[in-house]
Amino acid sequence: QLQLVESGGGLVQPGGSLRLSCVVSGLSLDDYAIGWFRQAPGKEREGVLCISKIGSTNYADSVKGRFTISRDNAKNTVYLQMNSLKPEDAAIYYCAATRSYQCPPQAVIYEYDYWGQGTQVTVSS
Predict the structure, then answer these.
(1) 83: number of CA atoms within 13 Å, CB side?
(2) If phi over 0 gives left and psi between -120 and 50 gives alpha, with beta otherwise, what is residue 65?
(3) How would you classify the pairing of strands 119-123 and 10-12?
(4) What are phi and psi of 61, to 5 degrees?
(5) Nearest to 94 by CA among 30, 32, 20, 44
(6) DSSP string across the chain
(7) How far, in Å, CA of 96 to CA of 46, rounded?
(8) Who contacts 25 (Cβ-Cβ below 8 Å, separation ≥6)?
(9) Whether 57 contacts 103, CB under 8 Å
């Protein structure tokens, strides 16, 4: 059974860091691209970053230079390292999978077939 489980969210002060994890089961990271998305209250879900077998794609200009994505095939885990967090980064963060060896060039939600339940990130002093 294919499953994605996020963790690592929490409360952090502005300027702080968090590392989110997405543990996947029932699939091989070599066969799927994994994307991180986020959704703040009252806003649409937006793409953040994606990683695949051949590379990564940045979906959000607002996180460039602050967020990075990586993966550990041995642990079947994809990470989202978030540094220099801002209040506007607060959202529920989701990981999602699409069966492709490369990331979709655009963060089109319907191209991702499987989703985790999300983890809450709060940025506040």
Answers:
(1) 6
(2) left
(3) parallel
(4) -60, -30
(5) 20
(6) --EEEEE--EEE-TT--EEEEEEEESS-TTT-EEEEEEE-TTS--EEEEEE-SS-EEE--GGGTTTEEEEEEGGGTEEEEEE-S--GGG-EEEEEEEESSSS--SS--GGG--EE---EEEEE--
(7) 12
(8) 1, 2, 3, 5, 76
(9) yes
Given the structure tokens 């997405």, which residue do they identify?
22
**Tens-of-pLDDT digits for all 125 residues of the chain?**
899 999 999 999 999 999 999 999 998 999 999 999 999 999 999 999 999 999 999 999 999 999 999 999 999 999 999 999 999 999 999 999 999 999 999 889 999 999 999 999 999 99
Torsion 125-48-118-25 (CA) sign: negative
CA-nearest of 113, 63, 71, 58 to 91 is 63
Q: What pLDDT, on a 0 to 100 scale, did the predictor assign at position 1?
A: 85
Residue in this structure with the two tokens 């077998």, named with its chain if needed: 53
